[in-house]
Amino acid sequence: MTRTLTLTTDAFRDQHGDPATWSPATLDSYLVIGEIAPPPPPPYTHREMQAEAEAWQASAAGQQRLAAELARKGHTIAAGIHRRGAQDARQHAEAARLGWPAYETFLNGW
After folding, report:
1. Do 92 and 56 contact (CB within 8 A), yes or no?
2. Under a CB-based contact definition with an 8 Å cutoff, are residues 106 and 91 in contact?
């Protein structure tokens, strides 16, 4: 079986492990690979991720208002469901504000 190595920064990190343990020469090799074959740009821009965060924040606010209204009417179980939904939406918003890599990590549960 022939193994083909691809020259990418991700493949280099996979092969060499934690960058905190790299020697200066290893770090230089990594930087050169980054110049030769830069990683692709993230699929969403910072502006798009901020819009996503705003949408999640609006969802959280709406669910929180609904939870409060349901609680006032005595529907505690339904109110709790919407409170948890609001909390989840706030977590999505926080991750989205940090940009695509953080949001992708949050979505994948890493």
Report:
1. yes
2. yes
